[in-house]
Amino acid sequence: MTAGMEHFAEWKKIDDEKEAGIISLDTMVRGTCDKQKVLDIVENFTIFNEGRGELTKLVAKNHQLLGVNNAIAAVHEILANKGKLGVFWHTQGSGKSYSMVFFSQKVLRKLPGDWTFVIVTDRIDLDGQIYRNFASTGAVLEDEKRVRADSGDSLKRMLNQENHRYLFTLIQKFGTEHGQRYPVLSTRSDIIVITDEAHRSQYDVFAANMRSALPNAAFIGFTGTPLMAGEELTKEVFGAYVSIYNFKESVDDENTVPLYYQPHP
After folding, report:
1. Where are the beta strands (DSSP E) in the chain?
2. Partners of 56 in the beta sheet?
3. Which residue, among 163, 13, 176, 144, has the nearest Cα to 134 in the 3D structure?
4. Residue pLDDT, tens place only, 46-100
5. What's the CA gap between 258 and 260, in Å, rounded?
6. CA-based nearest residue to 69, from 112, 15, 27
7. This prediction's pTM
8. What separation in angstroms does the CA of 162 have from each of 44, 60, 174, 206?
9. How many alpha carbons fall within 13 Å on the CB side of residue 130?
10. 203-240: b or e for each residue (b if 16 or more CB lie within 10 Å)?
11. How far apart are CA 111 and CA 146, in angstroms?
12. 3-state class of 218 per DSSP?
């Protein structure tokens, strides 16, 4: 209750992100105060961030709760969809990294299984940012800080010989020498690979090696940009969109600043 007004957001939809969205007291009450919904918010969509030297309480926004629950529903159908959990498109600035935390933590709380999450990116700075979000919110425990692969060998060791809730790696760590075949590291079916910016680096030899290493893993792709022409292969790899929160919605909610185009002669 001490947050500035810029940290509050409207609750426009009740059960489905495809709803038109209405700003009203009735929508907010029905969307947040139903018994099951309020318990879900308290248990699975409230986190405490210890970053920047202070403790901050963060509650998911409307689009994060609806999107993450869509992804959870996909995990419930993991056998039917053959591990293709879908593409989670929430435009940049919408809290996508925290949605990853909400998603993985709710799976650990609510779905039976000895789950492991492998969070894969293709940039060092992005890998560090996502890891810090998980660590500062308590998802990565104090006694499990060394879960970032700093080499291809450390990645193999962590996947093949150790048991972690979370692993963070660059996709480049799945590299091999020319002509080599990447070994199978785990045949577990309770591994979920979360790839950030899914359509950027998921079709080359690194991605093929990752799937050879984890043949029974499930995959979900998080991205801040829509799939363009020629990127339909992303749907073949991850499945169809599991959640969409597009640029216009984010601008309307003031999560993202507007983008203007002014042509010059």
Report:
1. 46-49, 56-59, 84-90, 116-121, 166-170, 191-196, 218-223, 241-245
2. 49
3. 144
4. 999 987 778 999 999 999 999 999 999 999 999 999 999 999 999 888 899 999 9
5. 6
6. 15
7. 0.90
8. 27, 32, 17, 22
9. 30
10. eeebbebbeebbeebbbbbbbbeebeeebeebbebbbe
11. 25
12. strand
Q: Are 65 and 71 in contact (CB under 8 A)?
A: no
Interatomic CA distance for residues 255 and 257, integer angstroms: 7
Residue that is written with structure tokens 């591994």 in the block = 191
Give the tokens for residue 25.
């007291």
State how far the Cα of 92 lies from the Cα of 143, in Å rounded to an integer: 32
CA 228 – CA 147 distance, rounded (Å): 33
For every residue of 115-133, DSSP letters joined together read -EEEEEES-HHHHHHHHHH
Dist. CA 191–CA 260, nearest whole Å? 42
Structural domains of the chain ordered from first start: 61-252 (3.40.50.300)
Q: What 3-state DSSP class applies to 170?
A: strand
Residue-wise pLDDT for 121-158, tens only, equals: 988 998 999 999 999 999 997 666 689 998 999 999 99
Q: Residue 218 has which token pair?
A: 């499930």
Structure tokens at 114: 């000895």
Q: Are 67 and 52 in contact (CB under 8 A)?
A: no
Tokens 């600035």 locate to 93
d(CA 221, CA 201): 11
Handedness of CA 63, 68, 71, 72 (dihedral sign): negative
What are the structure tokens assigned to 13, written together? 């939809």
